[in-house]
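Recall the central idea of this unit: under ordinary conditions, the amino acid sequence of a chain determines the structure it adopts. In this exercise we apply that idea directly, starting from the sequence alone.
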Amino acid sequence: MDTTNWIALLAVFGFGSILAALIARGVAIAQLRQAWINALRNDLAEVFATSDRIAKLVRDQSAAEPKIDALSEQSHLSMAAHRRVLLRLNPAERLHEELTLSLDALINVGSHDEYIKKIDGALRTAQSLLKQEWEVTKYGTFAPVAAKLKSLQKRAQKEA
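Accordingly, the structure predicted from this sequence is:
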């Protein structure tokens, strides 16, 4: 085998090794992102569950004796989950900031109906954020292109 063939063979193996390393890196990042999404979803579910219990306790307080201990316990659980969510969010991203504001609004308890509206608003924002993060995990660096193509497809379907 002459020198040219050896160089070509080494180039193919070198390119293959680099490609394999890039693919492995992408898989590792996707796995870490998926674990982050799962943890965020679990903490959000805890925030919403404890918020629902707080809303019920606030509503029921007017009908019976105050349930201060139960309300205090649920508030502590909710704030712990709330802070775990905040630690996972990126304050530089729009949806993350919107979710932060929605969750912060839950701290100020008003009437039961107002509180339920706040919970519903935060839930919708959380769903949008989780969907966006899933798209990034699914499509990687092509996520913005995929999102644009999907929005164009939806618009075309509405017009048809």
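The chain has a mean pLDDT of 81.
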